[in-house]
Design goal:
seven-stranded mixed beta sheet, binds SN-glycerol-3-phosphate, Glycerol_kin, kinase, alpha/beta, binds adenosine-5'-diphosphate
Length: 497
């Protein structure tokens, strides 16, 4: 029995390892949360050692829970929180600083300075991204500038940098492999997504020595083997992708025009545009959906920073619910006559506004407004924000037809009320699959197909199964009145209206 595939899903708040059997069913899993460090306002860090130990522990836990040995595993697939970046010593493997997390805003002044120099167009043209602190490049530049001696050591070739996948590969292979995949590279702000190379001009603008960076491979590729001492057997690492890209694969969005949206802490919608590198005119990102057999498939991406986090705010911030799953029931009790809007710009707004300075706001309160109206406003904000993304995608690319169906996943899709409201506001069907572990499944598919034990893309796509389709039911007049109210609320929330 060597047909199991192990997926490592290294996320923003927890690490999960999931063992899939030869039938692509979950055979065992383990999860571990780790510490979020907030050393200053707007700063978010992770301890790479804690992440590493969570990976080792969950791998062992997943094997134990399935009653399997490492020798039963045909291959490992890694998927990870994107943009978060680590720099470590090549000789010792020790990080020189905590990982700077994707949510971290400390490099906003660097981005501002580059924008003032008129460089945003250059970055966008080459990387498909915008000058926002979200991406890895300015975080690497910050560490090289601020950690004592880092730049000198980097220039001498003593240091290595990489996103979390890259750091884990280095550790798993005991320092033999320094690599990343094209999707993770496409989030760094220094990777040319058209030429598929690290871009010398961008590296020199950010003063990042090329020697720091990993080799960029296909998503299904040979990433070396785990060091024998770690788990008692060498296991091949054959798949790597950023978590949103892995979810796109796990949702089998292999055809141009197919779209998935993942509703976790934030929401990330990816629309497959095939071989078309679509340049957004509406402040969306262009990204590499996946690269297989040297062939790049592109996507348009809309990134929303607050989705399920708005539900956490209902629970932990204003305490109108005790558990996330109570939010839908409470929202259903809201007074239909009241139009209360929440613009959840708690950490600024992402796509398509990219307003780092905006902060959350509530509009339309009356003396009758209470917990139910707040809950409805929080859940609806997720639907409205997705609608803004879909509208931008349709303007950007004719392949995003009016018939687009949205495949959804992530913790929040457990809420039927939210999914129905999403379909109503989008005026498009929303499909929830039976398997919600799509991110891990996507990583496992990369490794499993490369190992030859899982089906190729076409047959894998046939295994995608629908749990429930939510069809739009709201009448057009109500929808457009609600959308007009939302747009007005957003306009009044922007830092520069
Ligand atoms: N039944 C529910 N209704 C609404 N939101 C939910 C529900 N269950 C979970 N959530 C939200 O989903 C998020 C967790 O989803 P998950 O995919 O695990 O996120 P992440 O990977 O970003 O940590 C939380 O923000 C939580 O508030
Ligand atoms: O770890 P998640 O699921 O919150 O995803 C984070 C994204 O990859 C950030 O771009």
């Amino acid at each position: 029995m060597t047909k199991h595939i192990l997926a490592i899903d290294q996320g923003t708040t927890s690490t999960r390892a999931i063992l899939f059997d030869g039938e692509m069913k979950v055979a065992g899993s383990a999860q571990q949360e780790f510490t979020q460090h907030y050393p200053a306002s707007g700063w978010v860090e992770h301890d790479p050692e804690e992440i590493w130990s969570s990976v080792v522990t969950t791998i062992k836990g997943a094997l134990t829970s399935a009653g399997r040995d490492p020798s039963d595993v045909a291959a490992i697939g890694i998927t990870n929180q994107r943009e978060t970046v680590v720099i470590w010593d090549r000789a010792t493997g020790e990080p020189i600083h905590n990982a700077i997390v994707w949510q971290d805003r400390r490099t906003a002044p660097i981005c501002q300075k580059l924008k003032k120099q008129g460089l945003e167009k250059t970055f966008t043209k080459k990387t498909g991204l915008l000058l926002d602190p979200y991406f890895s490049g300015t975080k690497i530049a910050w560490m090289l500038d601020k950690v004592k001696g880092a730049r000198k050591r980097a220039e001498k070739g003593e240091l290595l940098a990489g996103t979390i996948d890259s750091f884990l590969i280095w550790r798993l292979t005991a320092g033999k492999v320094h690599a990343t995949d094209a999707t993770n590279a496409s989030r760094t702000l220094v990777y040319n997504i058209e030429k598929n190379v690290w871009d010398d001009e961008l590296l020199s603008i950010l003063r990042i020595p090329a020697a720091l960076l990993p080799e960029v491979k296909d998503c299904a590729d040979d990433y070396g083997v785990t060091e024998k001492g770690l788990f008692g057997a060498e296991i091949r690492i054959l798949g790597v992708a950023g978590d949103q890209h892995a979810a796109t694969i796990g949702q089998a969005c292999f055809e141009p025009g197919m779209m998935k949206s993942t509703y976790g802490t934030g929401c990330f919608a990816l629309l497959n545009t095939g071989a078309d590198l679509v340049r957004s005119k509406n402040r969306l990102l262009t990204t590499i959906a996946y690269r297989l057999n040297g062939k790049t498939t592109y996507a348009l991406e809309g990134s929303i920073f607050i989705a399920g986090a708005a539900v956490q705010w209902l629970r932990d911030g204003i305490k109108v619910i005790g558990k996330a799953e109570q939010s839908g029931k409470l929202a259903a009790e809201a007074d239909p006559a009241q139009q209360v809007y929440l613009v959840p710009a708690f950490v600024g707004l992402g796509a398509p506004h990219w307003d780092a300075e905006a902060r959350g706001a509530i509009f339309g309160l009356t003396r009758n407004s209470g917990p139910a109206e707040f809950a409805r406003a929080a859940l609806e904000s997720v639907a409205y924000q997705t609608r803004d993304l879909l509208d931008a995608m349709r303007k950007d690319w004719k392949g995003a037809s009016a018939k687009t169906v949205l495949r959804v996943d992530g913790g929040m899709v457990a809420s039927d009320w939210t999914m129905q409201r999403l379909a109503d506001i989008l005026d498009a069907p929303v499909d929830r699959p039976t398997i919600l572990e799509t991110t891990a499944l996507g990583a496992a598919w990369l490794a499993g197909s490369k190992a030859g034990v899982w089906p190729k893309a076409k047959d894998f796509a046939k295994t995608w199964a629908l749990d429930r389709r939510f069809k739009p039911e709201m009448d057009a007049a109500t929808r457009s009145a609600k959308l007009a109210g939302w747009r007005d609320a957003v306009r009044r929330t922007l830092s520069v209206p």
